[in-house]
Batch of 2 targets.
Target 1
Amino acid sequence: VSELTITSSAGRYDVEIAEGGFAALVAELPEDTFIVADDFFRDRIEGRVVWISAEERLKTVSEGERLLGELREAGARRSSHLVAVGGGIVQDLATFAAQQFMRGIRWTYVPTTLLGMADSCIGGKSSLNVGRFKNLAGSYFPPERVLVDPEFIATLPAEDVAGGLAEAAKITFCRGPEAFAQHRRDYDGFPDSAAVLLHHTLAAKQWFIEIDEFDRAERRLLNFGHTFGHALEAGTTFAVSHGAGVALGVRCAIALTRERGEADEHADELDAHCVRLLDRVPDLAQRLGTLDRAVFERAFKGDKKHTQDEFHVILPAPGGGAREVALPATDDTMLAVHRAVSATVGDA
Ligand SMILES: NC(=O)c1ccc[n+]([C@@H]2O[C@H](COP(=O)([O-])OP(=O)(O)OC[C@H]3O[C@@H](n4cnc5c(N)ncnc54)[C@H](O)[C@@H]3O)[C@@H](O)[C@H]2O)c1
């Protein structure tokens, strides 16, 4: 069992990493507790549960409204405690429900995907989709407690494991060369070393979210790989998953840095690590074969970080870590971006 305490504007909250911790939590739930869970766990969780189907199309305000109504029907009150069990979709919906229910109730989050365990479980962010706009409506409402139980990793598909590991690699790389060297040692022992790897990853992320809770400076660096990654997801009509997109996006950012003559051995090590992670993703070449460059370009240009005249990308910094770089929003820059994609995925 290991613990971290996160300081946020909404107060401090504890993160506990404990193998088998979920079974222990369920065994001693207080009377006034309501569970909101991914319906993947229907056979494993009993009691007062509101089930959520973890589908992106249901990550909406109306699904949040359903949760609020069902919690009330089930007898939840202002003093009740919510326990959310699932990946990022459940987290996003549960954050909304906990924040809105009678102006806010206490809640605990139990992440069940590696992305949730290594990354999204701390930081307090939540977003819901509105029509075709992903993550348009959002807020901050951190849980009172996070319980990370690595036993949930056992049933995850290989691709989701690779995706979670890609986020973990990105976070530790951004934190600096020591954190990333530790991460590679932890990775060599994975999955046996999952609890240790998760502890080190969350401790690295903790630094970013405490120094810049609201994404104004340092925390933006955690977007490393995402400008390219999101565009690759969109350009393949989501045949490339988010996790694979992040690993590929990091590789594209490194390729662009290389072209600028600024890539050093730290960037090379991260690149080689991402290649190993991508080997875990089935049929990747086939899926990349569907890449539509026009759709990719539109998505790349639509990134929230950009300004009117500049593309803002996160690139590996000389000496390790990452930095935000503003590139002129010109056709020449866009050609360099396309060349970085070709260097990474071929001429798809
Ligand atoms: N709030 C945040 O800070 C934050 C951060 C990153 C991503 N997100 C959001 O999270 C979502 C993606 O979340 P995700 O990748 O964690 O997963 P998810 O919630 O989308 O779930 C993916 C699939 O895995 C299944 N699943 C969950 N746990 C499992 C387990 N232990 N074994 C087997 N299958 C399991 C689910 O039923 C679902 O089919 C996106 O909507 C994204 O926008 C939120």
Note: The CA atoms of residues 65 and 287 lie 36 Å apart.
Target 2
Amino acid sequence: MMKEILKKKLVAQLEYTLSKSRFYQSKFREIPADAGLSEAFKDFPFTDKQELLTDQEHHPPFGANLCVSLKDCRRIHKTSGTTNKPLLIVMTDNDIATTVEIGKKCFQSSGLKESDVVVHCLSYNMWMGGYTDHQSLEATGATVIPFGVGNTHNLIETILLIKPTAIHCTPSYLSKIELVLKNEFCLKPIDLGLKLGLFGAESGLQNEIFRKNIEKKWGMKAMNANYGMADVLSMFGAECHRQEGLHFMACDILYPEIISPGSLETVPIEEGNLGELVLTNLDREAQPLIRYRTNDIIRILSTRECECGNKGFKFEVVGRSDDMFVFKGVNVYINAIERVISDHVDAFSGHFQVFINEQPPVDLFRIHIELNDGADAGSVGEKLFQTFRSTLSISPEIIFVPNGSLPRTAGKSKKLFKTL
Ligand SMILES: [Zn+2]
């Protein structure tokens, strides 16, 4: 049962959106009277990213969903666009304020304090993770070094000089820093003296072995601090000190639903349930979204109030529906493959790429995995193959490649490739 205050916010936002957005006016041809809006909500059609991309193509540059005049817009970002063309995201002052407020709560939940100095290593190149997350870091009272991405040698020099206590980056960037530390400074990660790692944009930390390995190697607490998406809200999921999954941090800013990936039926947000996360903005002026399919499949871990005081449900991201494919009748998630690979931290660097056919049905399924120097390809390969079979019911062709041979990126790295 929807709480009364939430219902009021939802109805107010729906009224606003339907009166201002030409995109939603043409999408919802039959709009119920005000009093029926919250009842009708569950039957509203979903919105997906492709519709928004098409809308921006037909109504360039910002689309017919722009509900304010450009003079009331303060900032323009774009989505990272690893799988599609980027979307342009526009924010008003109020949109920025709510985004930064939730971002601040996420970083605080993951342990960032006023006394911290944090080096911020996400791209400022129109990406929400750059400038807007920078503001969220500052909002905690911490001191921020606006580093951005690239030039790892200079990053290390900066860390050695200023001695920040925390770093905010993607987990895969750590291995790039480690490589440059070793080759160009003869140093180890622990020599940097970082105490807190705030990670986002990629999965990986959900694997406890992978996390413990980072914590041991770097001497810092590794936190999943930044889950979100530029098209909806930059950040709305973060762990607390218990490291038991992401808290949903935006209870009065976003209305969440989960839907079954097959039937698209709504599934209750209850412990153990799994589905694609669907979000509706409750407080958005420039480009509000109604029942937006995020493509992320999540599992609800707990709905009980946490020891940290946060009442938001806890969840984990199981995978992206566009990072999923069907191989011999089995749904294969790239995240699940990643978890198995990161169980073998001694043998593998953690970098891998998956190749499948461009057109289904998939009969080519090959994984290129970086093997650490000195690891025994024969025995570890057999063990890995058996783990894939027993835990994921898959039998991919495994090809080992030398450590350092797959591309390192500071942003999100693409792992699934479709070949002819
Ligand atoms: Zn908690």
Note: DSSP finds eleven helices and 20 strands in the chain.
